[in-house]
Specification:
It comes from Stutzerimonas stutzeri KOS6. With 135 residues, the protein is mainly alpha-helical. The chain contains six helices and two strands. It has helices at 6-17, 21-32, 76-89, 94-98, 102-108, 117-134; strands at 56-63, 66-73. Strand 1 (56-63) and strand 2 (66-73) form a beta hairpin.
């Protein structure tokens, strides 16, 4: 996985060293605190991701050929999951983003068993929205 962005390598290292779910949950909360904030105007209906039980907002911008996303949620655990997803996708080109397997990424972090179907669907909706923005 040497083709991973630096932040994804950092996440992979941290989560694979975690001894169990309690440590991973704590890590998720810490990663969620790292999210770049969205201002009130960005927390608009136009930026809200459909398909998430919690409120999730996503904005993306292209910098040269690479994409940078910011996201926010009203749910603490979801913020952590968003941060981990952004660690995996930020800095990718659109064609690279299209190849990202969300389930594989969360499985490599040891988080797939803790993703409820609704959380998994929500994260898939976020990734799909990213792909729409880059398309």
């Amino acid at each position: 996985m040497s083709d991973l962005p630096q932040s994804a390598c950092e996440a992979l290292g941290a989560f694979t060293q975690a001894a169990g779910w309690e440590q991973r949950a704590r890590l998720l909360m810490q990663w969620g605190e790292r999210l770049e904030p969205l201002d009130d105007a960005e927390r608009s209906e136009a930026n809200r991701v459909a398909g998430c039980e919690s409120h999730v907002w996503l904005v993306g911008e292209r910098q040269n050929e690479r994409w940078h996303f910011r996201a926010a949620s009203d749910a603490r655990l979801i913020r952590g999951l968003l941060a981990i997803l952004l660690a995996r996708v930020n800095g990718l080109e659109a064609d690279q983003l299209a190849q990202v397997g969300m389930a594989d990424w969360f499985a490599s972090l040891g988080l797939s068993r803790q993703l409820s179907p609704s959380r998994s669907n929500g994260m898939n909706a976020v990734l799909q929205r990213m792909r729409e923005l880059t398309g």
